[in-house]
Amino acid sequence: MKTKVEQLSIFGGTPEFADKLHVGRPNIGDRRLLLRRIQAALRRGWLTNNGPLVQEFERRIAEFVGVRHCIAMCNGTVAMEIATRASGLSGEVIVPSFTFIATAHALQWQQITPVFCDIDPETHTLDPKSVERMVTPRTTGIIGVHVWGRGCDVDALKRIARKRKLKLLFDAAHAFGCSINGRMIGGFGNAEVFSFHATKFMNTFEGGAVTTNDDDLAATIRLMKNFGFAGYDNVIYIGTNGKMSEISAAMGLTSLEAVDSLICHNRNNYAEYLEALKGIPGTALLNYQDHEKSNYQYIVMEVDEGKAGFSRDALLFILHAENVIARRYFFPGCHRMEPYHSLFPHAGMLLPVTESLVKRVLCLPTGRAIGRRSIRRISEIIRLVSGNAQEVNERLRRLKAI
Is the distance from CB of 281 to CB of 386 less than 8 angstroms? Predict the structure, then answer.
């Protein structure tokens, strides 16, 4: 355990961890079962094109989240692109800037203008009052993002969408296995989009899905993800290739069977972090609500530089040097990335909460790759920085690191 500032790796000490600890290192369920599924797919010679594993995966995901339809996809981004196109979105669509860039790109890729809206400072999700102010005659839809697995204010957004005759979709990339008012995320709005990327707590190697209770929308999405085919040689709709492979579905089914144990591990890690980081001035961990289901996938720390005495970025540099690869989600905000920064250079003036939050949020490693001992060691580094903030800042300045 490091007890002196000079022991920190950034100042010449040995890194606390020999191997890098990541925010989202892939979780793998029962390897033997996974390999049996893959071997069965190889024996069948049916590796894609709506194979039996994909069909089973779709059926079990739909049952898990409580919807009529799940359409598995090759990844979450393509799933979002197809969902927005199948929903008939055009013109302008209101989205948060505090999200992964794929949410905005899925719209811009189709020449739909993402209109960046501010967020609630407590939930980090779309602020319904701000959404109301952003609606124009060109607005055709709203895409809410369930950040950190905590749901949007779906009721308020639904009221706005109904009043303004807008489509309502949700990016649920963070929210598989989570609930809102006791109801599983996946069946809200016109459709919801999940990501099953390797970094998600439940993954399909690479993949995604659209879930919906709209029969017509589901039928259109199924056409669009397979080139518009409605039979062996009958193309009736414009489409693309968004299909999930059998190998990805094998991983997805294996991950789904391990969901309870994965969530339990994440929940235990969250409890360990809460205890280990308790009382550090100017820092706070995101609060998960006990009455809702959560996947506890993200350990989210906010650093208030004025109260902590050190900045979020200073802590980031120090942790990275110790091989703790913390992440600045969603820095610097979609509105400050291209092409949006050039298209809307003054968007930040309408996003004060977003502008502030992207400078404070830091996600810490979790998942099966780490446990109690690693969390204690990470937390002791943060406490060392906190207890010696002035000296740390002076040394960083000499290194020109801040």
Answer: yes
Query: Which pTM was predicted?
Result: 0.96
CATH-assigned architecture of domain 5-24+259-326+365-399: Alpha-Beta Complex (3.90)
Residues 6+ apart with CB under 8 A from 342: none
- Can you tell me the mean pLDDT for 224-228? 97
Strand 179-180 and strand 183-184: pairing?
antiparallel
In 39-166, beta strands by DSSP E: 69-73, 92-96, 113-117, 139-145
Quick: pLDDT tens for 340-370. 999 999 999 999 999 999 999 999 999 999 9
Of 122, 153, 96, give the one whose Cα is nearest residue 330. Answer: 96
Which residue is it, tokens 């055709």? Answer: 140
Nearest-10 Cα torsion for 352, 357, 360, 366: -170
Peptide bond into 332 cis (omega under 30): yes
- Domain 31-257 in CATH 3.40.640.10? The answer is yes
What's the distance, Cα to Cα, between the start and end of the chain in Å?
25
**Hey, where are the domains in the chain?**
5-24+259-326+365-399, 31-257
Ranges of H-type helices in 204-258: 215-224, 246-257
| pLDDT, tens digit (0-9, with 9 covering 90-100), for 248-280 | 999 999 999 999 999 999 999 999 999 999 999
